[in-house]
Amino acid sequence: MTKEQLSYEIINDGRGYLIKLDGTPWILQDNYIPYPKATIEESAQAHIEQILIEVNKPPQPSKEDEIAQLKEQVALLESAVAELAYGGAK
User: What is the dihedral of CA 52, 55, 58, 63, to 10 degrees?
Assistant: First the structure.
């Protein structure tokens, strides 16, 4: 998703906004403004910027990948402890 795909329209006499994705209504902010700024226009733009940050985050590793990585780290630590305890001192 790019900034060019997102636009906004001020609604309800300046009390809310509608975010559009490729010109299609997408997110209606009418009673609650999640990113309040000095003007409703600035609030809508801040909301769009936050959407872009969230959508363009790098993918996070899966829980399975995290578990596998932690298991590898535990095995390395256990090996290091065993070496220190039983094989390192003479």
Answer: 150
pLDDT of residue 1: 87
Classify the phi-psi angles of 23: left when phi > 0, otherwise alpha if psi is within -120 to 50, otherwise beta: left
Q: Is the pTM of this model over 0.70?
A: no
Cβ–Cβ < 8 Å for 47, 3: no
Cβ neighbours for 80, distance < 8 A, ≥ 6 positions apart: none
Q: Give the DSSP letter of residue 61.
A: P
- Report the DSSP pairing between strands 16-21 and 24-29: antiparallel
> pLDDT for 51-80, tens place per residue?
999 999 988 889 999 999 999 999 999 999
Give the pLDDT of residue 40.
96
